[in-house]
Amino acid sequence: MKLCAEHLDWTVHGRKLVDNVNLSIEPGETFGLVGPNGSGKTTLLRLLAGLRKPRAGMVRLDGRPMARLRQRDIAQSVALVEQQADTGERLSVRQAVELGRTPFLSPLRPWSDADERIVNRALDDVEMRHFGDRLWHTLSGGERQRVHIARALAQQPRILLLDEPTNHLDIHHQLSILDLVRRLPITVVIALHDLNQAMDCDRLGVMERGRLVDLGPPTGVLSAERLQRTFGVRADVIDDPLDGRPILRFRQAI
Q1: Looking at the structure, do residues 67 and 165 belong to the same domain, yes or no?
Q2: What CA–CA distance (Å, rounded) separates 22 from 205?
């Protein structure tokens, strides 16, 4: 499914958090959003997910204006994993993930064995099935993050939006979640702080003060000039001795 943003603007108290962003993400692409804190990545993801209506411009899903679609229809195609999301404290892990099936349920289409299998698969994918009966409030920050990702996977979205999905995760689960995301046969938009993790995306967009200031392949976008100007660091691109992939070696900016 193709996702497009056209001249998107979002303003709060006179400050533009998203400023005239134009973006086209192809079906099956893994697109990374990078930028300093406060650059507009989270706001842009919420606009792309249909959770906020832009002050100007529009979002299109396969050419259809998102503003003309029902929220239920959007939720059947698009899932967002936010950095911080609320879940009822008395819910169990399994119940929280089952919420991902809500857009597909109705009086004419009640819960089924197929929904149960989808939820089990989502829990397995994030290594949380054995936590199924645990209550939400007993979970660590990293465990909660994995449950939120499982809930998004249970939606079986065609477009998955993730806002810093590796926050609070230990290195094992960071790597497993990123590997899982890379293997999904869907369109993925992922905001990341770790620029070496971003190097594995098909394309990157760099956000700066609400504007999309650079766009293209990771090795072209994360140039020495861009890293110093936007992130205030110096870095060399080197080949990973294990697999030959390009990685960044950082040095403090002068």
Answers
A1: yes
A2: 11
